[in-house]
């Protein structure tokens, strides 16, 4: 009978080989050899543990991939980080778009990190777009939290230009209306002052001649006749 004198641990050794020799008491003694192989079965006696407590420098977080419909030099793309929660925590490959860690995470680092990557083509007048990557730090390792959020900067600039034109037009219209209102107010005020002045002046008749008297020659002749009683 084989009896163990201790606990067998499969994680330390999963297989044992034992050689057993049986010898009788005859003269001369005879013996026989038996090789026994013992396999240790696994039981659930270990808790899970993390093999890595922090990310080393150069740990690949994710990869930003962009395409350009142009051809030749115009389609050569460059990747740069233009904004990040921690500027010294991530780096991006200039032509690969691979986002990697620059250093190990510390307790001072925020649990949620945001990295904004700019993708620029190689045209004479470079066009660009941005990709926003959200990363969660869990147990010292970065985990991609959300999908990329792409934004076309050229479209954003066009919208901004349109908004500026609308705002400028509105301000100009309001300014013109204000100036017109001021001139109209001054004109009405001047007209009212003129009417008030003329209404207060005295009103005189248009003529100063005495009442009409008829001094025709006939009347004078009649006035020169003698009294009939004197004839």
From TrEMBL:
UniProt organism field: Cyclopterus lumpus
GO-annotated cellular components: plasma membrane
Compartment(s): Cell membrane
Entry membrane topology: Single-pass type I membrane protein
SMART domains recorded: CA
Alphabetical UniProt keywords: Calcium, Cell adhesion, Cell membrane, Glycoprotein, Membrane, Repeat, Signal, Transmembrane, Transmembrane helix
BP-aspect Gene Ontology terms: anatomical structure morphogenesis; homophilic cell adhesion via plasma membrane adhesion molecules
Residues that span the membrane, as ranges: 162-185
GO MF, any single term: calcium ion binding
Protein's recorded name: Cadherin domain-containing protein
PANTHER family assigned to the protein according to its UniProt record, in alphabetical order: CADHERIN-87A, PROTOCADHERIN GAMMA-C3
CDD domains hit by this protein: Cadherin_repeat
Domain Cadherin: 8-50, 53-148
Superkingdom, taxonomy of origin: Eukaryota
